[in-house]
Design a protein that fits this description.
Helices cover 55% and strands 3% of the residues. By secondary structure, it is mainly α. Strands 1-2 form a two-stranded parallel sheet. The two termini are 30 Å apart. The model has no long low-confidence stretch (mean pLDDT 86).
Length: 148
């Protein structure tokens, strides 16, 4: 009989709260979970092989392949879209994601001045950082993969 293992909680999109799932797709409220940071501490403390005895390896592998919203919002959305659309899921989470994207578009349209101002500010900030770094590409200094 297989011993139960801990699963790693998938990082949520910033506007979502509650109802989380694990990296391997389980409902997080029904299985023992830990965060990516907690798993990282476990991995450092026990080593890869011992941590594998206590942790879902699908979760561990998936956590290293996907970033978080803070790493790259495009990748976080890509993951959610792939999870809900590419593999033919038609469930509450997929419907919710569609509704959230429609709501975000409606908010951007309703507050177009603020939306454009935020984008302009971000572009100016990026240009200033690039200038300070002497023209170096800042995206090369960031982690491109998620994980631990």
């Amino acid at each position: 009989m297989k011993e139960p293992v801990d699963h790693i909680l998938r990082p949520e999109l910033p506007w979502r709260t509650g109802g989380g799932i694990t990296e391997c797709g389980y409902d997080a409220s029904k299985v023992p979970t830990l965060t990516r940071d907690e798993y990282s501490i476990r991995l450092k403390g026990l080593g890869r092989q011992r941590a594998a005895l206590l942790t879902c390896m699908t979760c561990a592998d998936t956590a290293t392949r996907w970033g978080t919203w803070d790493d790259d919002p495009r990748k976080a959305l890509e993951r959610e879209i792939a999870w809900e659309c590419r593999w033919g899921r038609n469930n509450d989470r997929g419907v919710r994601l569609r509704d959230e994207l429609v709501a975000l578009a409606a908010l951007a349209e309703a507050h177009s001045t603020e939306f454009r101002a935020h984008i302009d500010h971000t572009e100016k900030q990026r240009a200033w950082i690039e200038m300070k770094q002497g023209g170096k590409d800042i995206s090369a200094t960031r982690r491109t993969r998620g994980g631990l």
